[in-house]
Design a protein that fits this description.
- The termini are far apart.
- The longest helix has 23 residues, at 165-187.
- This protein is an alpha/beta fold.
- The chain contains 9 helices and 7 strands, in the order H-H-H-E-H-E-H-E-E-H-E-H-H-H-E-E.
- Strand 4 (122-128), helix 6 (137-147) and strand 5 (148-159) form a beta-alpha-beta unit.
Length: 240
């Protein structure tokens, strides 16, 4: 794939290279667009995700698909260190600049489906808006389970689909008509902002995502619906 705009014609799954290219291309405007398109609600969701994670002052947290490191400033006060992982070089570069005053953070460029960490390395794992963009979400979640300590916890923030018919219709209209246009205007790349809402609309949520967690080694503990099902927070544990 030579240009990220080609993503508009792709169906899931895509390759690791496709994902890397897409996020490298939209990295300069990624944070701005998240705030604009969500009307700032994304920050409230991220804060709520961190509130629901166990705090382990002497432990390590792994932030998978960290992007520009939006969660790192919220996570870092609660752990001995945070390891931020992403496939995109450009996203990580912006994350390092954003969090340059947080020395207890390591930035690792890696595919979330095959991470360079030993088994049972992290007390807590967080991942926001990243699972659905993995070529194989099952492989990614299984890999996260591998590197998590027995008894450790994962927190996932991911998009879903509203169940209320009126709310669902409004959200679908917004996703199909507003997000691609605003995304194209600000980022210059309409293809990525057609692809991303499409993956959100097709990705399993609620009890279906809980089943995916169970199938990859996790034990779901808490599921929180946000804004009528536009997004969900999933908290699950690795068996001790």
């Amino acid at each position: 794939m030579e240009n990220v705009s080609d993503m508009s014609s792709l169906s899931h799954p895509v390759s690791v290279g496709d994902v890397r290219n897409m996020f490298d291309n939209i990295a300069p405007t990624y944070d701005k667009l998240n705030g604009v398109l969500s009307l700032g609600i994304n920050r409230l969701w991220e804060r709520r995700l961190v509130r629901n994670l166990p705090k382990v002052s002497g432990g390590l947290c792994l932030d998978v698909c960290t992007g520009t490191g939006a969660l790192v400033p919220r996570l870092s006060p609660h752990y001995r260190g945070v390891v931020a992982v992403d496939i995109s070089t450009e996203m990580l570069s912006r994350g390092r600049k954003r969090c340059q005053d947080i020395p207890q953070t390591a930035w690792i460029e890696s595919d979330a489906q095959d991470m360079p960490f030993a088994d049972d390395s992290f007390d807590v794992i967080s991942v926001s808006y990243g699972v659905r963009n993995l070529p194989s979400p099952e492989t990614g979640l299984r890999e996260m389970c591998r590197v998590c300590l027995p008894g450790g916890t994962i927190g996932v923030l991911e998009f879903g689909q509203p169940t209320n018919k009126v709310w669902s219709s409004l959200y679908q209209w917004y996703s199909k008509n507003i997000i691609p246009r605003v995304g194209a205007y600000i980022s210059g790349d309409g293809g990525a902002y057609q692809y991303l809402p499409r993956t959100a609309a097709a990705f399993p949520c609620g009890s279906e995502f809980e089943d995916l967690l169970k199938a990859t080694g996790w034990v779901p503990r808490k599921t929180i619906s946000l804004c009528g099902g536009i997004a969900f927070i999933y908290i699950a544990d690795k068996p001790a």
